[in-house]
Protein: MarR family transcriptional regulator
Amino acid sequence: MSKLPDIVIKRVYDPYDVTDGIRILVDRLWPRGLHKSDVKMDYWLKNVAPSPELRHWFAHDPAHWDEFQINYRHELLHGNADLSRLIEIASQHKVTLLYAARNPLCNHALVLQKFLTDTLSKK
Structure:
């Protein structure tokens, strides 16, 4: 039986914790109000974030949440080099996905976390 991946999500504005593991920013845009020196992270994988078109359409509107999840998963299924790198890292280490969205219940990091867990659980 394969070990379940250890993937957590955390707002980039939340404090660093030694238990975070590998910290990866998964937003396409740099978080507002932060300098790069303010963020303790190991990688910034911009291309695992939703496409600019999908991000603009979603606009963090809870009314779009269900359809956003479907469309973002569809984008993830097409993959890219950043996603391959993230899967590789998450298969070997604890990972904390950092995101900037305000809503902890309605953001792309939740979808990405589930996608990664599902993907790695099949290996």
Notes: Strands lie at 7-11, 22-25, 43-44, 95-99. Residues 7-121 form one domain. The two ends are 10 Å apart (CA to CA). The chain has four helices and four strands.
